[in-house]
Specification:
two-stranded antiparallel sheet; Dna Ligase, domain 1
C-alpha cells in the first residue's frame, strides 16, 4: 500500500466515525412507536374471529381436506393394513425368488504381466468369486502362480474355483 492510499483510507474511517458519532449523540433519544401495545390488544379483542365452520369452509375452498379425529384414525388404520398386505406380498415374492440363483458371466482378458492377484481382484469385481485374496491363495497352494496364460476367457459365477483355475491357468 502506498502512503497516499493509506492516508485516504484513514481519512475515510475518520469521516465515517464522525458521522456515526454525531447521529448517535444528536439523534432522537428513544424510538417512537406508532401504536401503543394496549391499543393493539384492544383492537384484536374487538375484531371478530371466524367460527369453526367458517374456518373449515375457508380451508376446504383453498383445497385442504378436513378430517375429524375418528376419520383420521380410520385412515391410519387402513394405511397400516395396506402396508402389512404389501409387506406380506413382498415376502411371498422373495420366498419364491429365493429358489432362483443369479449367475454372473464375464469375459476376462488376461494380459502379459498380470498376476494371479490381479486376476482374483478382477473376478471379485465381476461378482464371479467372493474373495480375490482367497483365489490368489488357492492358486498359490496349487503352485500355479507362474502358469498364468494370457488370453480371453469366459467365466461365470456358477463355476467352482477349480473350474475357473483350470480355464485360466495351463
Amino acid at each position: 500500500m502506498t502512503p497516499n492510499s493509506l492516508r485516504s483510507f484513514s481519512a475515510g474511517l475518520f469521516v465515517a466515525a464522525i458521522l456515526t458519532g454525531s447521529v448517535y449523540l444528536f439523534g432522537p433519544s428513544e424510538a417512537k412507536s406508532t401504536e401503543n401495545l394496549a391499543d393493539k390488544t384492544e383492537k384484536a379483542a374487538k375484531t371478530e374471529r371466524p367460527g369453526v365452520q367458517e374456518m373449515i369452509d375457508l380451508l376446504v375452498s383453498k383445497g385442504y381436506v378436513i378430517n375429524t379425529e375418528a376419520e383420521w384414525s380410520e385412515q391410519l388404520a387402513a394405511a397400516a393394513k395396506a402396508s402389512e398386505k404389501d409387506k406380506e406380498k413382498t415376502e411371498e415374492k422373495s420366498n419364491k425368488e429365493a429358489g432362483e440363483k443369479v449367475v454372473y458371466r464375464t469375459i476376462l482378458t488376461v494380459s502379459m504381466g498380470m498376476t494371479s492377484i490381479d486376476v482374483g481382484n478382477a473376478l471379485e469385481r465381476a461378482n464371479i468369486i467372493n474373495s480375490g485374496v482367497q483365489f490368489y491363495k488357492d492358486v498359490e497352494k496349487r503352485g500355479l502362480a507362474n502358469e498364468l496364460r494370457p488370453g480371453t476367457f469366459e467365466v461365470e459365477s456358477g463355476m467352482t474355483t477349480d473350474e475357473i483355475i483350470s480355464v485360466i491357468f495351463k
